[in-house]
Write a structure and sequence with these properties.
The structure is a homodimer.
Chain A: H1 17-31, H2 38-45, H3 52-55, H4 59-83, H5 89-101, H6 108-118, H7 122-145, H8 150-170, H9 176-191, H10 197-211
The structure holds a DNA duplex.
Chain lengths: 220, 220
DNA sequence: GGCCGTCTAGACACCCTTGTCCAGTCCCGC
DNA sequence: GCGGGACTGGACAAGGGTGTCTAGACGGCC
């Protein structure tokens, strides 16, 4: 997706719609909506600007597709993780927690960027609200499955989800070790149950395996 | 600040630096950084665009001043509320809670907008991080004063502050009554102590007195 | 009254961006 | 081999943004 031959004509590998979306998503996540210009995208793809208009009707069309993909990836991941089977509530929360730490499941920066951009657009706002409702509903159901009373499940789901969004909105820059040290306490805050050593160890192992990626800042 | 006579020359009331900042802050909070253009501001003030450059060196200079005022208002409010005297931890948390519900103390939309914008700028980012550290430190100290162990205070401060930021990042639109119904449960999550009826009643009264403002959407 | 400092309007140059148009190049099926 | 569809490059117009410059109006101070 990055190193395309810039030969004129379709001789070399041509860009696909997906390529444009990839670059746009990365740019949106790192530099915000304002930085997503057709020119910038085409330069990153090593391709002419007009190529863009073959794949997309307009810049707005790109953002529509962007929102679609954001929803499909980020929201789906959360829902799937919340619905995963687990013996204890702590284990369930850890499942959701995997979204926060594994870039393959969830892109925090993208989520924040989409949120910041969608605030201006009414149609995007509606979609965003729907996504948030879907996410919290899934987490709420997760708590309910583990026997929490309806409104208790609701508050716990909100605390969990809202706090995580806030964490990314703050965009704290602290080493993974510092974050992990607090994990057991956070878990207990969410579940109301003291996590077992075995559960904490599993979470720590998973986090360490994936979070290294987020400790680097790409200069793009 | 809104109805300025547009008479040529300084004959009528002239705009002040504060006027520009007021309008810019309002616009930033409601439409995001991209919407804050010199032209838009001047139109809202009923004044020529070039007037802007008498008050500010450049558009960037405006944003510097904006950040300054945002910090002075929003951050100061939180710190002051966190440092206010209170008999119980619940009461202390309620004090901070006043920021979230009283527009005179804290502007959530502005906070979110500044956050979204500052992400792109390095200097603004540094300032933002400093503000967040100051806020959480004040809340952490608040918990510590009520006898919480150091790292317990730290986690509780983070849960409280991070969750609130997340709440505004989500920008949930729900009636004040629904929010208030959950307030006691949230309080207990933050403090670990069941709030007394009297404390809940005081919080509810305060919230009802101020939150009506936020139930309206201004069309600007 | 004269003058200076404050404040404003309008014109201008310049840049960046979007969206369109057209000529042209390549792959692929026939 | 060839013709059409997929795909790209460069030129173009139009709009909106910033920042500068100049001419000038007004209030207050001397």
């Amino acid at each position: 997706m990055t190193a395309l031959a810039a030969a004129p004509g379709g001789g070399a590998r041509a860009t696909t719609r997906e390529d444009w979306l990839d670059v746009a998503l990365a740019l949106l996540a790192r530099r915000g909506a304002g930085a997503v210009s057709v020119l910038t995208l085409s330069e990153r793809l090593g391709v002419s600007r007009s190529s863009f208009y073959w794949h997309f009707r307009s810049r707005e069309g790109l953002f529509d597709a962007l929102l679609e993909r954001w929803d499909a990836r980020n929201t789906r991941s959360i829902v799937r993780q919340a619905e995963a089977e687990a013996a204890t509530i702590t284990e369930s929360v850890c499942n959701v927690f995997r979204c926060w730490v594994n870039p393959a499941l969830f892109s925090p920066r993208l989520d924040v960027a989409v949120r910041a951009w969608a605030r201006a657009s009414d149609t995007a706002r509606a979609r965003l609200d729907a996504a948030d409702r879907e996410r919290t509903a899934a987490i709420e159901a997760m708590f309910a499955r583990h026997g929490f009373a309806p409104d208790d499940a609701m508050v716990r789901a909100r605390v969990l989800y809202t706090m995580q969004i806030g964490y990314y909105a703050l965009d704290m820059r602290e080493p993974i070790a510092a974050r992990l040290a607090l994990a057991p306490r956070y878990l207990e805050t969410f579940t109301g149950v003291k996590p077992r050593d075995q559960e904490v160890a599993a979470l720590r192992a998973y986090a360490l395996a994936h979070a290294a990626v987020q400790d680097f800042e790409d200069p793009s």
